[in-house]
Amino acid sequence: MTIQPTGAGHIAPVTVDAPEPGAVTVVIPTFNEAANVRELLRRVAASVPARLPCEVVFVDDSTDDTPTVIADAARDCAFPVSVIHRDTPDGGLGGAVIEGMKAATSPWIVVMDADLQHPPDLIPGLVATGEEQHADLVVASRYLPGGSRAGLAGGYRVAVSRGATRLAKGLFPRALRGISDPMSGFFAIRRETVTGAVTAEALKPLGYKILLELAVRRRPRQVAEVPFVFQDRFAGESKSTAKEGLRFLRHLVELRTASPLARMVAFGAIGLTGFVPNLAALYGLTGAGLHYLPAELLANQLGVAWNFLLIEVLLFRDRRHHRHWADRAGRFALLANADLVLRIPLIALFVGQFHMTVLPATTLALLTTFVLRFAGTEALVYLPRRTRGARTGRNPR
Length: 397
Ligand SMILES: Nc1nc2c(ncn2[C@@H]2O[C@H](COP(=O)(O)OP(=O)(O)O)[C@@H](O)[C@H]2O)c(=O)[nH]1
Ligand SMILES: [Mg+2]
Prior knowledge:
Spore Coat Polysaccharide Biosynthesis Protein SpsA, Chain A; binds guanosine-5'-diphosphate; elongated; disordered N terminus; alpha/beta; 2 domains; 14 helices; 7 strands; 9% strand
């Protein structure tokens, strides 16, 4: 266990004559952080000046005695401290942060970790910077001059963090403009920027990288950044796992495919990857002596199955609940094969009636059946059935 001197070497970019900041709700998700919360509250108390009214909301999914330790430590705090303990931790870390934002009452919300990797003495600086620069979002960044990732244990985690940052910024160049550290879990946001979203559940709990979620879905008008030194964990162990990495990738796909056009492009990209199992199966089956026509037919089904799996997992993950998987698979396979059947008469039509040559006719037929197939898949496989949806009150977007 290491204790980092929070003040030393830490750059606080706040000017003394910063405008009087508004009050702040500090939202802290906790999962078995009993050994950290007392020190955390002590440092929050030491950092937040009397002129900045503050409350702390813990959203706790712990299986240890973290809530009791918080309640005990809160007695020494001059500001209100509350704990929302969730028996069913919906949405994990992301869901917890959204829950805390819903409970927040102040004009500013600061989100931070409980393990002291995020120095509490930066809380007033984040809020003051937001007030000063009229920003809706202030990100504590490890990548600005003066910031660093000192506490990221090991080259592996540094590389993963760097790769994830590049990927996110590459996919969302506009939404993440001005945010050097979209993976940061430490930021201040004006409550009015999130209120509509948290009550309407527009923010998906899947987004455990909640800052990315907010920056992409809420598009804060003005963004500011402040450097910070990512410290070592004070006590305990990280809860980050490889599973979380997969969740992050799914989150990126979900955010990127929020519009129909983007979904169609993703649908096409997935369709292209289907050629690999298709051709591999064709190679294997004809190699085993099967006639090429039945081999084509079988291999095509493998391509269809592959596409179905990817589309289910990546593209329409949250639209699967209103149909049994076998129903979805059947409809999907039907559409995919209808595509083949429809293409030939279409090509004949283009060549015979419109006097096109074979290559452009085939290209046009491919494009037409592709768009039809995408629209058909959305409408017939993944769109909620109206009557039943209304009756059960289920509304999967
Ligand atoms: N409420 C809640 N908090 C979580 C969950 N998973 C992690 N946390 C908290 O989120 C913060 C960051 O988690 P941590 O394990 O330090 O992740 P790392 O900094 O990426 O290694 C800590 O305060 C954790 O206690 C969860 O499922 N629910
Ligand atoms: Mg941590």
